[in-house]
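Cellulose-binding domain-containing protein: structure tokens wanted.
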Amino acid sequence: MHPTTPRRRIALLAAASAVTLSAGALTTMTAAAAAVACRVDYRITNQWSGGFGADVTVTNLGDPVDGWTLGWSFAAGQQVVQAWNATVSQSGAQVSARDAGYNAAIGTGGTANFGFNGSWNNASNPVPAAFTLNG
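Answer:
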């Protein structure tokens, strides 16, 4: 039996290298910077003793991007073990997923998707609370 899979949709707004988590509020962008706005859907697809699978979809709501890096922090000691459709690295709780080259360009309204398998402590596997895009 698998627990209910939690879903988290988080809206992000960013200007150049500054990324601000948006909980319904908008930030002002400078005219010289490309507007980056996206939605992140992080979904735990499966969970078992000591491990889990996750599916992540980034939907571009702003200007087209050519090259992306999605960042987040794990709150309960989770570790990425294996990933596909992105190059994922982790240092402590900080995780960074970079495009795989063939999926670097995301047009306005387009999506990029990747997944990974991870390990967890069997006590808590919360979804990340915040994400950064290219920041």
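The domain at 7-133 is CATH 2.60.40.290 (Immunoglobulin-like). The chain has one domain: 7-133.

Cheers.
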